[in-house]
């Protein structure tokens, strides 16, 4: 069954075409970038072939998706004979609010639910919706599935997801903690248990999804009980360019002293803060690790701050879980940056973690145990694949074979 997976952002569309027949085979992937902006283009990749770049005006998401479909069936770089070979489409949808607790086949009610969350995710849900509408027009009759980034965290209880604000704001404005990266956290927790041959329902797990955006989740018996991101993806950890959690009084003070309005403060928090803001060098952990090893103190400070906050959440979530069986590192940083993993895992002996320094060094993108045999907690790197999860969810809901 050929499934097209779409991740529509405000000005980009990431895509993968996968063939699901028990196993999953990647047929093609790529990105449409700078939609509605000068310099728009599509980068199309087929395994074992040279990448194919198309530079052309791409006015909107429908135009972008039309170009994707053209590439998939194009004679030289395509992988399909005809568009009818696409049997289902899976969409990453950023926000499902309190309505969606699992993936859903898209119908009018689901589309309304997605649009009802526009205010909660103004940059992402409208783009996700546009992608769905475009596919309805370009591939009419092909089933579509929405996989929600927030769904996995809907098992959190009120004492966890509510803010200590007047309750009226929750009732009227839906202000609460929702969490994100749920697709990844669920996937790597299940994958780790399968790798270790353990029953996830009997495991206490902390998953650290560390990328340019980063979050940590506490999982008890396969269910999310707490996660670091909140009403927006800016809560929680320090990230590439996002501040993470910060005293709101500091924002009021900065805004007042600098004469910054809410849009300027939002840009500062999301685009100029995090490790980029501290280091004044880069938001890329690889650059910072190299600079730190060469003696750059601001790079070293940024990395230490980052690791400190990850460690804080691990300690807090171990307390919430009343123990810990598995600690997972995933995401671009979690899977590939041994420097950060080493900083995080130092001084976690109180949890029963005995870290394998030698195994950790140079480990990139693999599913591997990086704790020693005597460790009470199994520490792992686990590669994530959100597109594969979306494809499998789509397959499970639409399989007509």
UniProtKB/TrEMBL annotation:
InterPro entries: Ac/propionate_kinase, Aliphatic_acid_kin_short-chain, Aliphatic_acid_kinase_CS, ATPase_NBD. It catalyses: acetate + ATP = acetyl phosphate + ADP. The keyword Protease does not apply. Belongs to the acetokinase family. It is found in: Cytoplasm. GO terms for molecular function: acetate kinase activity; ATP binding; magnesium ion binding. Gene3D superfamilies: 3.30.420.40. Its EC number is 2.7.2.1. Catalyzes the formation of acetyl phosphate from acetate and ATP. Can also catalyze the reverse reaction. Pathway: Metabolic intermediate biosynthesis; acetyl-CoA biosynthesis; acetyl-CoA from acetate: step 1/2. The active site is at residue 149. ATP binds at residues 14, 209-213, 284-286, 332-336. The gene is ackA. Keywords: ATP-binding, Cytoplasm, Kinase, Magnesium, Metal-binding, Nucleotide-binding, Transferase. Mg(2+) binds at residues 7, 386. Mg(2+). Can also accept Mn(2+). Substrate binds at residue 92. Homodimer. This is Acetate kinase. Its cofactor is Mg(2+); Mn(2+). It comes from the Bacteria. PANTHER family: ACETATE KINASE, ACETATE KINASE-RELATED. GO terms for biological process: acetate metabolic process; acetyl-CoA biosynthetic process. HAMAP family: Acetate_kinase. The record marks 181, 242 as: Transition state stabilizer. It comes from Prolixibacter bellariivorans. GO terms for cellular component: cytoplasm.
């Amino acid at each position: 069954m050929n499934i097209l997976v779409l991740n529509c952002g405000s000005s980009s569309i990431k895509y993968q075409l996968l063939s699901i027949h028990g196993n999953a085979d990647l047929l093609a992937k790529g990105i449409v970038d700078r939609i509605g902006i000068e310099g728009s283009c599509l980068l199309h990749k087929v395994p074992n072939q040279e990448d194919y770049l198309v530079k052309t005006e791409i006015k909107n998401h429908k135009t972008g998706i039309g170009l994707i479909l053209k590439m998939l069936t194009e004679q030289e770089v395509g992988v399909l004979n005809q568009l009818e070979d696409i049997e289902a489409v899976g969409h990453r949808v950023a926000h499902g609010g309190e309505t969606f607790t699992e993936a859903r086949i898209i119908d009018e009610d689901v589309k309304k639910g997605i649009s009802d969350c526009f205010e909660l995710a103004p940059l992402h849900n409208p783009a996700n919706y546009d992608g769905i509408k475009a596919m309805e027009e370009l591939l009419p009759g092909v089933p579509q599935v929405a996989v929600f980034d927030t769904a996995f965290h809907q098992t959190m209880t009120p004492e966890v997801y509510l803010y200590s604000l007047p309750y009226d704001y929750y009732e009227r404005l839906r202000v609460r903690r929702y969490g994100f990266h749920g697709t990844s956290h669920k996937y790597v927790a299940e994958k780790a248990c399968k790798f270790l041959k353990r029953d996830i329902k009997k495991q206490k797990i902390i998953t650290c999804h560390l990328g340019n955006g980063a979050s940590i989740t506490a999982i008890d018996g396969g269910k999310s009980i707490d996660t670091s991101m909140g009403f927006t993806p800016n809560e929680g950890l320090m990230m590439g360019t996002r501040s993470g959690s910060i005293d709101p009084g500091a924002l009021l003070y900065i805004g007042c002293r600098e004469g910054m309005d809410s849009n300027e403060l939002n840009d500062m928090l999301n685009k100029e803060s995090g490790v980029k803001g501290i280091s004044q060098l880069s938001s890329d952990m690889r650059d910072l690790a190299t600079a730190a090893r060469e003696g750059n103190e601001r790079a070293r400070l940024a990395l230490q701050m980052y690791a400190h906050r990850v460690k804080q959440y691990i300690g807090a979530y171990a307390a919430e879980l009343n123990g810990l069986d598995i600690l997972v590192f995933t995401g671009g940083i979690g899977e590939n940056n041994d420097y950060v993993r080493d900083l995080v895992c130092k001084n976690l002996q109180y949890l029963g973690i005995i870290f394998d320094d030698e195994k950790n060094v140079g480990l990139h993108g693999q599913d591997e145990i990086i704790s020693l045999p005597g460790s009470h907690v199994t520490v792992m790197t686990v590669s994530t694949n959100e597109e594969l999860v979306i494809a499998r969810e789509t397959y499970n809901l639409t399989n007509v074979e």
